[in-house]
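Our consortium's second objective concerns turning raw sequence data into structural hypotheses that experimental partners can test. To show how far this objective has progressed, the report includes one record in full. It was chosen at random from the queue rather than selected for favorable results. The single chain below, 389 residues long, was entered without modification.
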Amino acid sequence: MKIALVLPNVPAYSETFFKNKILGLQQSGHEVLLYVNHSKAPNSYLNCKVVKAPVLNRNQLFVAFNLFLEFVKVLFLNPAKSFKLYQLNKKDEISFSQNLKQILANQFLLSEKVDWLHFGFGTMALGRENVATAIGAEMAVSFRGFDYYVYPVRNKNCYSVLFAKKVKYHVLSEGMKKGLMANGIKGEVIFKITPAIDIEIFDARESIKSDTIQIKTVARLHWIKGLEATLEAVSLLKKEGIDFHYTIIGDGVEKERLQFAIHQLGLNDNVTLAGKLSSEQVKEALSKADIYLQYSIQEGFCNAVLEAQAMGLLCVVSNAEGLSENVLDNQTGFVVAKQNPLLLFEKIKELLQLPENKKQIIGDQAVLRVQKEFNLEKQQKEFLAFYTE
């Protein structure tokens, strides 16, 4: 088969989810084509044809020239597909002006004959709901946490057109599947394929401990990750006189806000914002940790929690969406109600008081579950089944 993935960018080498999927499909003899908005990452390790979207958001002269080129494609390269897309959009009662914009903006998606057109994020299918039919391809859409739980909050009914189409859906969690079914999508067209990690990289063999309790989080610095509430919880550890150090690995728009919160809570000596690190650096940091925290307000699933469990760390997570499927409460870690710093503090304190043999059992169970359920080979097989069954 020829499978086209619609993504924001060419996946970087470190982006395990898409990289593993693409390589697995290629190893099984399928051709993978990438439609992207930008092409920042090198493509040499993927060996995929890359088709870039036209740039329609710069100065007016530049945009006008690109629109002219797309109009030429409508007339001479894709007239039949463009007309079919126009008719399908018109049937959905899309206005003439919006219809024309969609036809011009989506010319790059009409350029190839493919078997599957798979939108890697739900939001990337918006305004493109009829493109797959126009080119005679099957349509697939992947929903992640932001697509399903955040974007529709400020964009009501944004998926109403999409949900009326013939689509095969990929989701990260059982909770997300139930959410789609509540919107009238039949369960047989929704496939749960969770993230997976390289269990050869993240393993539990190395462990470097210190007298000070080491707590880690890997997350982009964004309000959705619940980092302010996490800081409030660890500030209560300090008030209890518990000797700890908390390291947040990642970067993002909320860095200055978090720096201020650290100062206000008197945690300058207890908290480090380590910035973005490589996979090897993350592994090294986790090897020195006692506890891993992921107290997100919303989370589709979270690879970082899988990596921490694979290394045998004691994980405490919020009950935000996929996290309660990622970590089994009191079996492979601990799940706490979100947005309640006091509850998080109490759970960390309770964890610290557990007998060492109990900690070891939970850590071992986490390692075994990740190795069995969240390995790259299993994920590749599930994606092959997604397209063929």
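The partners drew two points from this record. The two ends are 13 Å apart (CA to CA). The chain has two domains: 2-52+112-196+376-388, 213-373. Both points have been shared with the crystallography group to help prioritize constructs.
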